[in-house]
Amino acid sequence: MSAGSGNGADIDARAAAWAVRSAERALDDREQRELDAWLTADSRHLGAYVRAQALWLDIDRAVALESGARRAVPPARARNWRPFAMAASLALVVLGGATAYDHLAGRVETGRSEVRHMVLEDGSTVTLNGDSAVQIRYDDKVRQVILRRGEASFEVAHNSERPFVVRAEGLDVRAVGTEFVVGIGAGGVEVTVEEGVVAVGGTASGSAAPRYIRRNEQFVAATTGPRKEVLDAADVERRIAWRKGLLVFNGQQLGDAAAEVNRYSDLRVTIDDPTLARAEFMGVFKLGDARAFAGAAASAFNGEVIRRGNELVLVRQQNSPSH
Amino acid sequence: MDHQARLRWFAREVLPHEPDLRKWLVGRLRGLGSCDVDEVVQEAYARLWTADSDSIRNARAYLFVTARHIVGEHVRRSRIVAIDLVADLDALNIVDEEMSVDRRLSGQEELARLHGILQTLPPKCREAFELKKFQDFSQRQIAEHMGIAESTVEKHLAKALRLVSEAMKQAPAGAEDGRRRERRFWKWG
Fold first, then answer.
1. CA distance A116 to A108
2. Which of A66, A77, A82, A115 has its CA 20 to 30 A from that of A174?
3. Which GO terms describe its biological process (chain B) (predicted)?
4. CA B28 – CA B84 distance, rounded (Å)
């Protein structure tokens, strides 16, 4: 039983040997030191050892049944979270071509927990995130969409004669045939390109000449000054998961994740504990499903959810697992 | 809880979910060369063991969420993120109550399964195991009975445990029905 990490199967073999020996008799000092050294060398060793010991012990229980002895059925464990029968409502409306355009002569708005998908007369599509508003102004020379509030994703039908321009708070985003997302947030206007290239200009762009933003790049017209960031494909996908009616978290801080969730829900998730708010969180949720989010976060951090009026308050318990 | 009681808790509340966890992990770890299923399970068990078991109300959810975090740590370290790794509807539903549907085998099924596994053990290994577990012999008594060294008995037993534990990584045949019924509950969208 020498130390060393090894692969999963090696670890299981060593763990089995230690489990058999420690169940047979008390280990002597030298053996105990050897076991301790092995266990501290790699946390996986502890996991394998716990598993082996538990199995070895549990075999006795199965074997005991052979002689006719019945084991007591353990009581069901109490549960801290009651799932809600209904998922939050999420409207995903698809409007058809020309009809949609007539309908959109003015302004289009979405409420919370609503994502609206629209096909415009030229075949371009606009997906409006929750609590957002756009105004569509098409003429012979230019296809213009003004983002008034929130966030919208665009898939632009190619037409070099008639550029597609999205305006948001003094920023012009010009595309020929591409996919991109424009959002107005607390930090300024964000432009994220999924496919193709867009040219960013206008007073808020911080420069007279247009800046070109390519696939998987993001431009932020922040109040502190414009900046460009390169994202990886997964980041981009995560940011646009709302289009599919999903929220995806992949290691974001729980507090930020809750803010995202709250955007789509009247029931708000609140995190009182600042260290909990900074914990990294992963998960996928339906837009607007604050309850599922709170329940999952509570499970992940071994916390509890307390309902307080219109709030779901996340509270941490002691001995939560490390992440 | 003392050590033995905790091990028993672990065997009853955590181990039965391991085949499901492994199945779930196989799909998630594809193409993620830096970690394998065994490693994630071992790491998850280590964390579960170090956590306070009294405060773990739903061991299955806790296990899956812990494993998901471990996978996430690997993903972030390796920076070869695939969105489907996290955009996984099953992952979302692991905390649903429907998942707590009891899928344990009955005592008799469990015993039959153990006997089935024992059939696959090498003869000496199996003999030592049966003397130990069914006859409650000490290793010394087994050594005398089989005419082999005590250290060899220990090796046989360790091998038997390893082979049994390997077999336990797969879901037992009897649990299939329960799973199929359950899936219908936790699929949405």
1. 9
2. A115
3. DNA-templated transcription initiation
4. 8
Q: Where do the domains of chain A lie?
A: 8-67, 91-237, 245-316
This prediction's pTM:
0.49
Per-residue pLDDT of chain A (323 residues; tens, 9 = 90+): 444 456 777 899 999 999 999 999 989 999 999 999 999 999 899 999 999 999 998 888 777 766 543 333 333 333 333 232 222 223 333 333 333 333 345 678 888 777 888 888 888 888 888 888 888 888 888 899 989 888 999 999 888 888 899 999 889 999 877 889 999 887 789 999 988 889 998 877 877 788 889 888 899 988 778 888 888 887 788 788 888 778 888 778 899 899 888 888 888 999 988 888 888 888 788 887 888 888 888 888 888 889 998 899 998 765 444 44
CA A136 to chain B, closest CA, distance in angstroms equals 31
Pick the closest to residue A231 from B81, B172, B108 (CA basis): B81
Cβ A276 vs Cβ A316: under 8 Å: yes
Fold of A245-316: Phage tail protein beta-alpha-beta fold (3.55.50)
Beta bridge partners of A306: A313
Tally the C-alpha atoms within 13 A of residue B171's C-alpha that lie toward its C-beta: 17
Interface check B139 vs A, CB under 8 A: yes
CA A109 to chain centre: 24
- Does B107-167 carry CATH code 3.30.200.20? no
What would be the CATH architecture of the domain defined by A91-237? Answer: Sandwich (2.60)
Q: ipTM value, please give it.
A: 0.81
Residue numbers in A near B51 (CB within 8 A): 302, 319-321
Which amino acid is located at A197 in the chain? V
Most A CBs within 10 Å, among B38, B77, B105, to test the A interface: B38
Which B positions 119-138 lie with beta carbon below 8 A of chain A?
133-134, 138
